[in-house]
Design a protein that fits this description.
Blueprint lengths: L1 H14 L20 H15 L16 H14 L3
Helix pairs in contact: 1-2, 1-3
């Protein structure tokens, strides 16, 4: 899945992880060192990459805590804009 790969790559850039493919879909991103500053950096990177803008409701920690949840949020926006 291309979306999953892109999100993992952006996450790896933000968290300075050498092997994005080893980032678990289900593991809490805090376990990889994610903090609030990294989360903002990741959201901005994803918004720029996909040409979307996260709504305030989607910026809750619960929506950004795993790769799987990020995929769900981003795919919702991509469906909305027809991509």
């Amino acid at each position: 899945m291309e979306l999953e790969k892109t999100i993992r790559n952006k996450l790896a850039e933000v968290l300075k992880i050498e092997k994005p493919e080893e980032i678990s879909l289900e593991k809490d991103l805090k376990e990889y060192g994610m903090d609030s500053l990294n989360a903002i950096e990741l959201v901005v990177a994803l918004e720029m990459e996909f040409g979307i803008e996260f709504a305030e409701d989607d910026l809750l920690v619960d929506n950004l805590c795993t790769v799987q949840k990020l995929i769900l949020v981003v795919s919702k926006y991509l469906e909305f804009i027809g991509r």
